[in-house]
Design goal:
Low-confidence stretches: none
Structural class: mainly beta
Mean pLDDT: 85
Radius of gyration: 16 Å
Distance between the termini: 24 Å
Strand content: over 45%
Order of helices and strands: HEEEEEEEEEEEEEEEEEHH
Number of domains: 1
């Protein structure tokens, strides 16, 4: 099954909310889709940037340790985070979605963070989606910019560490270029993985 067909099948059960692109050759993008009870937020790009002390966004599932940093990467990986609609507020007029879910006193947020990557098995490309636990996620997705914030509380010290993945305005000289949202961004922004939707939806 081609990647485009897989994306089309996945999105057929979801309603589009917004899709935006930063207009760079990094093709940094995000897409928001919704089901009857959830928002599916998908991110992709070769130069996703962040706001954190060690310059990387990282998550682990015990078997894999995933690092996403601002360096150039050609990996064709898509990243997803899913929120219950009760955890979110959508301002349709302003094209802005804000969400927060998870508990810093609990080890993992059940809906968590997901990565979808293509695996080529003798010419048969399959999409594999892995789950990475987190304690708390906070999201702002809007035409002005995108931030997915991961919060973690260290049990021993009580220190709270915040990391963020960003899709931001591209700056030429001193002039920021707005994110391009709508039809053109649809060409780049990833859809929620079909298997992920099937796994979460009743």
């Amino acid at each position: 099954m081609s990647l485009l067909l897989a994306a089309a099948l996945a999105s057929s059960s979801l309603t589009p909310v917004m899709a935006c692109w930063d207009q760079t050759f990094g093709y940094n993008t995000f897409r928001v889709e919704k089901s009857a009870s959830r928002y599916y937020v998908s991110i992709s790009g070769s130069q996703l940037t962040g706001r954190f002390e060690d310059k990387e966004f990282y998550v682990s599932n015990g078997a894999e340790f995933l690092r996403i940093g601002p360096e150039w990467s050609s990996d064709q990986h898509d990243y997803h985070v899913v929120f219950n609609q009760s955890d979110c507020t959508l301002d349709a007029a302003a094209q802005k979605l804000t969400c927060a879910a998870g508990d810093l006193m609990v080890d993992s947020y059940d809906q968590a963070f997901w990565r979808t990557r293509p695996i080529d098995v003798l010419g048969d490309v399959q999409l594999i989606t892995s789950r990475f636990a987190a304690q708390r996620f906070e999201l702002t997705a809007a035409k002005e910019g995108f931030e997915l914030k991961k919060l973690h509380r260290y049990a021993g010290t009580g220190e709270v560490v915040s990391q963020s993945l960003l899709v931001t305005k591209y700056v030429i000289g001193d002039e920021p270029m707005d994110l391009k949202c709508g039809d053109q961004a649809d060409n780049f922004a990833p859809h929620a993985a079909e298997k992920l939707v099937q796994h979460l939806e009743p």
